[in-house]
Every structure is written in C-alpha cells, then in structure tokens.
Design a protein that fits this description.
Blueprint (H helix, E strand, L loop, with lengths): L4 H40 L1 H12 E6 L6 E2 L5 E13 L1 H11 L3 H13 L3 H8 L7 E7 L1 H13 L6 E10 L7 H4 L11 H5 L1 H5 L3 E6 L12 E4 L6 E4 L3 H18 L5 E7 L5 E7 L12 H9 L7 H15 L2 H4 L1 E2 L6 H11 L7 E4 L2 E4 L2 E4 L7 E4 H6 L3 H11 L1 H10 L26 H8 L6 E2 H12 L10 E5 L5 E4 L11 H16 L15 E13 L5 E12 L6 E8 L8 H4 L1 H14 L10 E3 L8 H11 L2 E5 L7 E3 L5 E3 L4 E5 L6 E3 L8 H10 L3 E6 L11 E5 L6 E3 L3 E7 L6
Parallel strand pairs: 2-8, 23-26, 28-31
Antiparallel strand pairs: 1-6, 2-3, 3-4, 3-5, 6-7, 8-17, 9-10, 9-21, 11-16, 12-15, 13-14, 17-18, 19-20, 20-21, 22-25, 24-26, 27-30, 29-31
Helix pairs in contact: 4-5, 4-6, 10-22, 11-12, 14-16, 14-17, 14-20, 16-18
Length: about 750
C-alpha cells in the first residue's frame, strides 16, 4: 500500500530543511574561522605581518652617522671628516631605458664612467648588466671635481635616471703622519681599526639613521606611499691630552735618534704629566701616513724589497702584511723589553724606603759581585772601588744594586715591584697594551734577585717603566696614564671630563725627593746621564742599556742591545716625565747614554720653556744689548760691564752696525762682539768642529772670529773639555760675518749606564 501524497511532500520538505541547516552550519563555521583568522591577523598579529608586508614593499637606505673628531688638548683637529661622493648606477633603469629606446646604455655608461673614474670598463659593464638590482656602486669616494664630471656626462647623454651620486664622509687626518700610532685609522666601513679610533670607536661612531620608501615589484617608488626617516646621530668628539707642539718635537727627536743609531727595530718615546697622568706626546719612529695607511713606509718597503720575493707570490703578500701590522703597532704600548739600568731608580727607592740602606751607605765594587756561586759583572770591569749608594746610582754600579736588593730581601723587593705597578697593565686607553714578565715570588732566588736589581732578565712595557719613574717624580704617588681629556657634543660642549683616580703613595715624599736629587746630580755632575743635561733647568735622569737574549750569535752570546733614557723635570717639582727607547742600535756606541740621552736633552730644551717653566739665568752668559747708534766709548763701557769682549772695526766715532745682533746670548769666556764704525764688514769661514772635542772646537771657532752657543751635555762636568761636538749650525767652509754665532751641540762619550 503506497503512502499518501501528503506524506511524501512532508518528508521532502524535512530533508530540504535539514540540508539547509547543515549548509548554514558549515557556512557559519567557515565564516567564524575566517573572522577569527582575520581577527588574529589584523588585531593580534598586526605588527608582525605588517612588518613583513613593509619589508616586501619597502627599500631602506642607511644614513651613516658622522664620526666625531679627535682633537689635541688645545683644540687642534687631529682627525676629522671630509665629504666624498659615492657614484652608483641603477641597472633596472638601464634595462628599461635600453629596451624602450633601443640603445645599449650599459655600454655607453661603462665607457664614460670608466674614463672619468679610472676604473675598468669591464667592471662597470658587469655591474650595469645586473638588471635585477636597483643600486650598484661604481666608486666609493670620488672627490667633488670628479663628481661634477660624472653629473655633466649623465646630463649630456640623458643618463640622469641611470647614474646617481650620493654624498658621504670619510676620515681625514690633517697632519698626515703626526701621532699616527696613537690616533690610529678607520677601515672602509668607517670603523676604527687601530689606536684611539678603535678604542673609542663606539663613542666616535654615533648612531646611523635610516630612510625607508615603498616600491612596487619592479623596485619603482610608489607615489604618496609609505616613507619613514630616522635621523642619524653624530658621534661625540674626543679631546685628547696630546699637545701638538710637544708631539711634533718628540717625533723630530725620535727620527733623529733613529737615524743616528741606525736602529733596526724602531725607536719610541712617551711624555707624561707626572701629576695628572696626561699623555702629552707618544710616538714611534718610523711613522706612517694615516691618510694612506696601507702603503708601507720607506723602512718597511726597503725590508720588503730586500726579501727578494716575487711580488706575485703568496710569501711576498704574507711578508707585506706582516710588515704592515708591524708598521701600525704602537711600540710604546704593545711591546715589552728589559729596562736595564733605568730600573735602578726603583731598586734604590725601595731600598731607601725600607731603611735597608741610606744614601751614605758604603759599598765596594771590584768589578763584580758573587751571588749564589755566580760571578755577576759590573759594566765597569775594573770596578768602581769604594762608593756610596748615591754614587752607585749616579755611576750605575751593578754590585751596589745587587747588595742593596740583598739587604732588602726577595720578599720585600717583590712587594715594591708590585707596588710600583709592574704586575698589572697601566690601564691606558689604547688597544693592545702589553704586559710585563717577571719571576713568581716563590722563584725569586738570590741570583734572580741580583739580576733583577739592575733591570735584567725580566721584561716590562715601556708605559709601565714610565709610570714607575713618574711615581718617583710625583712624590711617590702613582697616576694612570691616559689620553682622554673630555668628550664633546656637536655644539662643542663637554659632556664628560676624565677624572684621575686617587691612589696611595708607594714611597714617601722624602724618599722620592732623595732619589730625585741623586738623579739630578747624575746629570749636572759627573754621573752617567750627563748627556741629558739642559742648561738652565734641573733635570733628573737615568740611562740604561739592556741585552736581548731572544737572538744569540754563533757562540750563544747576545749581541743586540736596547738603549734607553728616562727623565723628569724640574727634579724638585716635576711637571713631565719622558722616556726614549732605541731598539737594536747598530751605531758604534750602543749605550743609552749615547743613543737616547742626547735626544732627551734636545726634547726638554724645546719643551720646558714652552711649558712656561722658568729658566735659571747663567752667570757664565750675557745678553748682547742694542749698541747701534751709541758713541763708541759708551758701547765699549756697556760691553765691559756685561763681561763681553769686543773688537772695533773702522775709524768712526759711533757704532753703525754690530755682530751678533741685540738679544743674542753669548758665553762670557769666549764671546766677542764686533762693532763696525763704518760701512765695511769682514767675512770669515766657518771651520769644521763636528767630531772635535769641546776644547778644540772652542779654539777653532775663536780663531775664525766666530761666537759659539753651546747646547747639549753638561758643560760643568770635569770631563766637559773632552766632550765631543755632534752638531754645528752652519756647515764647514760657509762664509759668514765675523762675530756670527755658531750653535754646537756636545755630548760625552760614555761607556756607562
């Protein structure tokens, strides 16, 4: 029996309704999923996906921050920035223009830019054909004139949409090689690589900015689209403790020492304010050009040439790199050496402080001292005989030092070695500071103590040695050597000042003054540091010569030497301390008294007056007054009052001219003023006095009618007449007016340190 028709109708409607509800449910679920997905994407994770979208449709250009300057203490700019231009091309635009106009713009651009920028045609063409790129650099640092030629070429050839320039800055060093090892230099990315540039890189660098712009899939900027600009922040400028004048003078002296000693392993020096730790000058000779640091200096290039290696070989390239790094290394900071007799200052200071000895303690030197069954020699093989501690320091007697250290004992000696800062770095604000090598306290036996007492068989850095000597000069109080004085913002306003940390005294003021007085007597008297003498000033100094045991001859003996000298002035209220180290001198006399001390004298002669330190008037010299126009008898009377001899040329009644001129300082004993009473003048020929003894030089110059100005070593020494002339201001056989002043520099031929 079939169901009624109404039943079929109801059943169909029910199924249809169920299907409708099912579809609506499915659509509802889908819509709910879509709404939840959109909510998550647009609300919960908007930042994440928004950034991804921006990254896909934006291009960013980094805006390099301008690097802060480096200045000396007086505001002289040592490192700055100069504008250069990056020349770049747009391969995408080159491709579009070439396709649109049917020209080979890549070849046109390659030909033009290669000629203007002095780069290869092939390299430019290769970059122009990288059509997937927006930007290809052709030149990184073109100057203004070159850029003008590039822009003119682009304009004349309708290439302005394809060739672009971008101004930027690069590091520039106005004084070239001055203070090169201290300042350091930057790399191609403008990041500091050496020296202050590296140590203070994060401060000098500043913070880069950024420019963002929206582009389409072809890299074309979209109109009225998303852009953002983050301004770059300029780096802070570094005001250093360096003094331009004092730096220049040090470099001149080091270069002279390098040449005179024919030093094979460079010469270095440091000048420091003993009260503040300010490093006023620091240099190594030979130096290099900061604006061209990858070119070897003449000394390094000569070594490369002498190698005989083929320039294309890997060995040649390796040697060149080794020479470059050696050339850049700051010897004063990174290298260590045996200080030799300059360390005797520390031994004596410690022995006096502990009461183990006094300045009047007596010793006997037969030319050696027996320690632990070993015979350790003095530099004076015949011996000094009987002498006091003070005389032992002035004459650099090894047995006196060994006996003084022996009386202290190894434990006390080690304690003071540590107190003077030798077991730690100085903390100077430069990269790569070296650390000394010394015996452990437990291994400091009698023999080790003996050799250490006179500065042998251990190593210190040059800065460690200077700091120790400066401690004595500063009444026993140590300071930290540093180069940072202050930091300035772009308005030249200081935002930071260096403050020296206060430290406890290592030795008493009395001990420091006693040692300083002995050192001064070693300069002004007959001590071993006579060549460090500076007329009119009381200089305390000590010379030293040490052996290098790393390299031995065929018989196992050391033959390489290091000559050095330390000094501070004035001795009773020191302002500055100086150290000069000459590494591997090959001259006939390798002692520090010859290779380093004369250059300490030259340096202090220049800078002590510059520092405003008063010079004592000498009663052996007189200043010539203006005499022109005076009646002849009046002029004679004034010269007699001054203690100066004179010679009158002519028959007139008054002085028409004089030689030397007013203001000249003459030695009373040998000086003579020539007074002309008519128009005639008399010439004389300058004799050769270089290499002569002082006594012979004075005689020769007097015979020639020349006046003399004596500089250099102490002339009060008993051995001064035997001192040797190392320099004369006018060359031999030069014609000059009679009475002209010839400056000579003298030194003592010492074989003692």
């Amino acid at each position: 029996m079939n169901p009624p028709a109404s039943y079929h109708r109801l059943d169909t409607e029910s199924k249809t309704r169920r299907r409708r509800y099912l579809l609506l449910s499915i659509f509802g679920i889908i819509l709910l999923f879509l709404f939840s997905l959109l909510f998550r994407l647009q609300i919960l994770e908007y930042g994440v996906y928004g950034a991804k979208v921006l990254n896909q449709i934006t291009v960013g250009s980094s805006l390099a921050a301008e690097r802060g300057e480096i200045l000396d203490r007086n505001g002289n700019v040592l490192a700055t920035n100069r504008t250069v231009w990056r020349v770049y091309i747009s391969p995408i635009d080159i491709r579009k223009a070439s396709k649109k106009q049917g020209k080979s713009y890549d070849e046109i651009i390659a030909k033009g830019l290669s000629e203007i920028l002095s780069v290869s045609y092939e390299s430019v063409l290769k970059k122009a054909q990288k059509t997937a790129y927006l930007d290809q650099t052709v030149a990184k640092s073109a100057d203004e004139e070159t850029v003008k030629r590039v822009l003119l070429f682009a304009k004349e050839n309708g290439l302005s949409s394809m060739i672009h320039t971008e101004a930027s800055t690069e590091r520039y060093y106005p004084f070239g090689s001055l203070a090169a090892h201290v300042i350091g230099f930057t790399g191609s990315d403008n990041q500091g690589l050496f020296g202050l540039e590296a140590y203070y890189n994060s401060i000098l660098s500043g913070t880069d900015g950024k420019y963002l712009a929206s582009v389409d899939s072809q890299g074309v900027k979209l109109p009225n689209a998303y852009t953002d600009y983050i301004e770059a922040e300029r780096g802070l400028s570094l005001v250093t403790t360096l003094d331009l004048y004092m730096q220049r003078e040090l470099e001149h002296c080091l270069e002279a020492a390098l040449i005179a000693a024919d030093a094979q392993n460079r010469v270095t020096g440091v000048v420091m304010n003993v009260k503040t730790g300010d490093v006023l000058a620091m240099a190594t000779a030979p130096t290099f050009d900061l604006n061209d640091p990858y070119t070897l200096n003449s000394y390094a290039q000569a070594k490369l040439n002498e190698s005989g290696l083929e320039s294309t070989s890997s060995e040649y390239k390796a040697l060149k790199n080794e020479l470059l790094y050696g050339m850049w290394a700051n010897k004063a900071v990174s290298e260590i050496y045996e200080p030799g007799s300059t360390f005797k200052i520390v031994t004596v200071a410690a022995a006096l402080e502990t009461g183990a000895v006094t300045t009047n303690s007596t010793f006997y030197c037969p030319g050696y001292y027996m320690v632990g069954g070993c015979r350790i020699s003095c530099h004076k093989r015949k011996g000094h005989g009987s002498l006091t501690l003070a005389e032992g320091l002035m004459h650099s007697c090894n047995p006196v030092m060994m006996q003084s250290a022996e009386r202290m004992g190894s434990e006390t000696f080690y304690k003071y070695y540590k107190a003077f800062g030798y077991l730690e770095k100085t903390g100077i604000d430069l990269p790569g500071e070296g650390m000394g090598l010394f015996h452990s306290q437990s291994s400091l036996g009698s023999t080790e103590l003996a050799t250490a007492s006179f500065g042998q068989r251990f190593k210190v850095s040059i800065l460690q040695q200077l700091r120790a000597i400066a401690t004595v000069a500063n009444d026993g109080v140590p300071v930290t050597p540093h180069l940072l004085s202050s930091l300035q913002d772009e308005k030249n306003e200081a935002v930071f000042h260096y403050v020296q940390e206060e430290k406890a005294a290592v030795i008493s003021q009395k001990t420091a003054e006693t040692v300083a007085a002995v050192l001064e007597a070693g300069v002004s008297g007959d001590g071993g540091a006579k060549n460090a003498y500076v007329e009119g000033y009381h200089v305390a100094a000590k010379t030293g010569t040490s052996e290098k045991f790393e390299v031995l001859d065929a018989n196992g003996n050391s033959f390489l030497r290091i000559g050095s000298c330390v000094a501070f002035a004035p001795h009773d209220d020191a302002e500055i301390a100086v150290i000069i180290v000459v590494d591997e001198p090959t001259s006939a006399n390798k002692y520090g008294s010859m290779t380093a001390a004369p250059y300490i004298s030259s340096y202090l002669t220049s800078v002590l007056p510059y520092l405003g330190l008063a010079k004592e008037e000498s009663d052996t010299k007189a200043t010539v007054e203006p005499l022109v126009g005076l009646e002849i008898n009046k002029a004679k009377s004034e010269l007699k009052e001054k203690g100066l001899a004179f010679e009158i040329i002519g028959n007139g009644s008054s002085v028409l001219s004089q030689t030397p001129s007013a203001g000249t300082v003459l030695e009373k004993a040998v000086g003579k003023v020539i007074l002309y009473t008519d128009s005639q003048s008399i010439s004389t020929t300058v004799p050769r006095v270089e290499g002569k003894t002082l006594a012979d030089a004075l005689r020769l110059l007097a015979d020639a009618g020349c006046n003399v100005n004596i500089t250099g070593a102490c002339t009060q020494s008993k051995t001064a007449p035997l001192a040797t002339v190392s320099y004369q201001s006018l060359p031999p056989d030069t014609l000059c007016d009679r009475g002209s002043v010839i400056t000579i520099q003298i030194y003592h031929k010492n074989d003692t340190d």
